[in-house]
Write a structure and sequence with these properties.
Strand order of the largest sheet: 6-5-7-11-10-9-3-12
Largest sheet: 8 strands, antiparallel
Radius of gyration: 18 Å
Number of strands: 12
Number of domains: 1
Number of helices: 2
Helix content: 10-25%
Strand content: 35-45%
Oligomer: single chain
Order of helices and strands: HEEEEEEEEEEEHE
Structural class: mainly beta
Length: about 190
């Protein structure tokens, strides 16, 4: 039993990549955090759809929530409010003024209505669940990057998440964020000079 415990601990340590390797950031590690003072540069104009306050990104594509695979990494550009008209977002250099992690919960399936797509019961992936509607919960730990631009104060945040087991554990990495955002955004990390 003692040897089994030692093997399990060693296996767990090997499976958790270090945040830095030889002094360089390991963007594949969940333990490497985006440094304060980093920037998110929008390379192409975007439009957040009317009556929405989020535009989603997955595998380098801009998507509506209904097209997002919640079991793969994704990001959501979040506006301060919903508008009756589409909200344009122009290429810009956004300062990341705060970085934090948050737990997000959603209802993903109602057992009484199996013909509904799993994500159809939610209005967005990053909404706290207020009530129990009989569905199952989906929990992710997301990275919230509060964005700031003097030119576009209506842009609020970029939220990125990746589901995994056990739920409630952070699985998103900088590498997964880059893949989700594709050529729409460049993430410029504020790293100390070597």
């Amino acid at each position: 039993m003692k040897y089994l415990l030692i093997i399990m601990i060693c296996a767990g340590l090997v499976g958790c990549p270090a945040p830095y390797i030889n002094g360089q950031p390991n963007e594949n590690s969940v333990y490497f955090e985006i440094p304060a003072g980093s920037r998110l540069i929008l390379e192409k104009p975007l439009q957040v759809p009317a009556e929405r306050n989020k535009l989603y990104f997955q595998n380098g594509r801009a998507l509506d929530w209904a097209a997002v695979n919640i079991y793969l990494p994704y990001c959501a550009l979040t506006m301060t409010s919903k508008n009756a008209e589409a909200q344009p977002v122009q290429p810009d250099d956004f300062a990341i003024r705060e970085i934090r992690t948050e737990h997000f919960f959603n209802i993903v399936r109602d057992d009484q209505t199996p013909d509904i797509r799993p994500a159809a019961l939610v209005t967005g992936p990053l909404v706290d669940m207020d009530q129990d509607h009989g569905g199952r919960t989906y929990e992710v730990v997301g990275v919230v990057m509060a964005l700031e631009s003097e030119h576009q104060p209506n842009v609020k945040a970029m939220i990125c998440a990746d589901w995994g087991v056990p739920q409630g554990t952070q699985f998103i990495t900088v590498a997964k964020i880059r893949k989700s955002l594709g050529s729409f955004f460049e993430l410029v990390l504020n790293l100390p000079a070597s």
